[in-house]
Amino acid sequence: xxxxxxxxxxLLAAPSCVLAQETTRVDDVVVTATRLPAVVHDMPGxxxxxxETLRLRGAVFAQDILADVxxxxxxxxGPGGVTSVRMRGAAQDKSLILVDGVPVNDPSQPAxxxxxxxxxxGATDRIEVLSGxxxxxxxxxxxxxxxxxxxxxxxxxxxxxxxxxxxTGRGRVxxxxxxxxxxxxxxxxxxxxDGISAxxxxxxxxxxxxxxxxxxxxxxxxxxxxxxxxxxxxxxxxEIDDFGPVDSLDTTETRNRSAFVRLxxxxxxxxxxxxxxxxxxxxxTTVSAFPSTYEGERRLLRxxxxxxxxxxxxxxxxxxxxxxxxxxNGASADLAVDSAFGTLRWDATDRLTLTLGLxxxxxxxxxxxxxxxxxxxxxxxxxxTLSGAWGTGFKTPSVSQAVCDFCFVLPGxxxxxxxxxxxxxxxxxxxxxxxxxxxxxxxxxxRLEIDDQIDGLFDAGTFExxxxxxxxxxxxxxxxxxxxxxxxxxxxxxxxxxxxxxxLDADAPxxxxxxxxxxxxxxxxxxxxxxxxxxxxxxxxxxxxxTRDGFVTANLxxxxxxxxxxxxxxxxxxxADESWQQLLGYGEPGRSGYxxxxxxx
Length: 601
Prior knowledge:
By secondary structure, the chain is mostly beta strands. The protein is 5% helix and 59% strand. It has 5 helices and 34 strands. The chain has helices at residues 2-11, 51-57, 63-66, 135-138, 399-403; strands spanning 30-31, 38-39, 46-50, 72-76, 83-87, 95-99, 102-103, 124-131, 145-151, 156-164, 168-178, 182-193, 208-220, 225-239, 251-268, 271-287, 292-309, 313-328, 331-347, 352-363, 367-381, 384-395, 421-433, 439-458, 465-487, 490-503, 508-509, 516-525, 529-538, 541-543, 546-548, 551-561, 566-573, 592-600. The chain has a 22-stranded antiparallel barrel. Strands 3-8-9-6-7 form a 5-stranded mixed sheet. The radius of gyration is 23 Å and the shape is globular. The relative contact order is 0.16.
């Protein structure tokens, strides 16, 4: 398995996460989750997955595409089960997830992570991934990085339907108007499947049902003033197998909601202003031998001002207030943080760009924390760019950890007060692009260190359980990505990562992080027909209870435009009918096929 991935990485250099047209330049790809828009090629650790790539790959859920981003480890407890993402070896709760700039991490989850199961991409325009500590931009939770989803505006009417293996059915309807001065749209999607057994050893199928609703509105009130509103809701019902895992009748229901109102005012005191009021909430109910109900809420108020001086310097600064609250099996608690941030980009010369970021977070319960990040990009000529970054990060204890949910402590046991987790990380990237824009690639080396990680401590002798700051981890990694436009409508892409994540205190590998993972995508676009073949593999992975074997699997997606309004689609997943697992003990489907119809008016 290692030999296959290393050989593939040595022979090819093209990212599967950005497949460009022959006329597209790398400079045209811009990342906006940096608060100041920046060219991806100049930002180490930054990637953009655009709407064209999502369509070409036939991606339905976020997990279908995120696994191909180098440095991301995606795993789920079987179809419909909890789906998590690790960035550069950091635990899943150390990645901040944004939907249209709104944090949606679950405050009621024990560590405050995000569950990607059922996260439908039908209303998504682009996905941006910023790997490495980003707390100087976004505060707590952004130790491993940030994954930002941006919704799209719809102009016209769209509808699609798909059916296939395991009695799977999927439908989506969207309608809207989008012009320069205003926009309004609504999108609804539904997915259901009888599924397979979530437990690899099981025999009864575990079904999944997911439904998403998204609304957007935008209005220019004057030449300088505009208002934007977005809202999204996702409901997921899943039959699950845990505690082994073995067959069971357990079920879980999850509702995720997020919304914001954003006012933009241009040219006030020489600055462009944004004021955002946002919120998100989640409700999770599990029916099992140990039933539970959790609810979490986040509320955010943010002001940001952007400016530029003499064309060479761009900057942004602002203030935030965020409150989180969780309801944990009848008990409730809340946390709050006030923040000030600023970032500056200076085009020092025609070839050298410097970026600085600084942020201070004042938490109500855990004191203040200042984080920073410095980055540079140097055009060496000949299409070669050398870039690097160094930054710090932190994460406050979650609500669950702060109130010690499910804890049992005997009288007289001294438990130390929790402190925020901290991190620092650096990276160096060397990129190249050809003069005609047909070829580009980048290799990135990095180190990420995390201190004072919070973990649950269980004493088998006294049966005590509580949270403590006990762990230190270090991740050294290498990420390779690139793209080649081959002509004749063909694009070739590759993404590969070597990740050495170590628990320094235990002197052991971090669980659920494969040492090697990669994907190769061959895409073809004709006048009416398009197709993409993706081969993805992972090496052996340490997991709870043993080692999950490595695997190689392949997916094929195709679309045929009958005319400008009607498209037939087809997908085949697990093309070679491999037996494989994302998590040890949890099953994944064998070869499965799906056909669909897409309409546009």
